[in-house]
Design goal:
With 125 residues, the chain is α/β, with parallel strands linked by helices. The chain is built from 3 helices and 4 strands; from the N terminus they run ββαββαα.
């Protein structure tokens, strides 16, 4: 599983083609705390949209070559937005990642704890 922790420091996507014969599980951990601010949360969501749109999908847009995508947000605490098995269509994922700024402190440790210790993102979900 890949965990992508987003913060106010991120880079611009460049289009790259990668041939993957099997998928991966990717969890986006999006910082929505006060240290980020409203503007940057929306910029990060835009970045995630570009990233998700760059994934290869089959002709009927139902299966991502990336096996599954999950997302959580964190500020004072971490909140699961959706699990790895919640969505299988790119359009559903793109709608679900449109999260809002929450303010508060930056508790990245809680986000990591959710993904690792509490096992919210595992092969079953």
């Amino acid at each position: 599983m890949f965990i992508i922790l987003t913060s106010m420091f991120f880079t611009t996507m460049t289009k790259t083609s990668v041939d993957c014969s099997s998928g991966s599980d990717i969890v986006f951990a999006l910082d929505t705390s006060g240290s980020i601010g409203r503007k940057y949360v929306q910029e990060i969501v835009g970045f995630l949209e570009q990233l998700i749109n760059s994934f290869n999908v089959n002709a009927n847009d139902t299966d991502l070559t990336v096996s599954r995508i999950g997302m959580l947000t964190y500020a004072d605490t971490a909140t699961i937005q959706f699990q790895l098995n919640t969505y299988s269509k790119r359009t559903e994922i793109l709608q679900a990642i449109n999260v809002r700024y929450s303010g508060g402190t930056t508790n990245a440790a809680d986000a990591i704890r959710y993904t690792r210790l509490l096992d919210y993102f595992n092969t079953d979900n």
